[in-house]
What does this fold into?
Amino acid sequence: MAEPGGDASGAGAEQDREPRPLDAIDRAILRLLQEDGRASIRSVADRAHVSRANAYARISRMVEDGVIRGFTARVDHERAGSGASAYITLKIVQNSWRDVRAELLKLTEVDHMALVSGDFDVLLLVHAADNRALRELVLTRLHNLPGVLSTRTLLVFEETDRRPGDGD
It folds into this structure.
């Protein structure tokens, strides 16, 4: 699907203001785009029961407001050569999140990261080629990051994404 509003990164002045409230049609459009981010404006408009111009305007607004952060492919990591997945928790030095985050963003295996509360500070979802690559990531690269005090690794045996279009 062509990206209305151009850059869907959410960057810019529009990101700084509060997003406008979403109505039932906006939510329907979001659900449709989550099912198929490549859907045409015409298809989205037809399925949401609005005109193409209305669908285009709503999608553009949600991109501008940062509600839609981009249009991506959902990947089967095992089929893509990253058969080892894990959640990794990190304890980090107090006030080091920005620096640790910047270093974590450089690691291609990191699929998702979150600063969290509780017994640890950071939660990562990582995908590596195999257990050897996962071991190298944890024991060599993560443990050597400045600000990382300790890690705990939870191996993922099976993954299921719960998103629209996944068996709904």
Summary: The beta strands are 84-92, 110-115, 122-128, 148-156. The chain has five helices and four strands. Residues 84-156 form a domain with the Alpha-Beta Plaits fold (CATH 3.30.70.920).
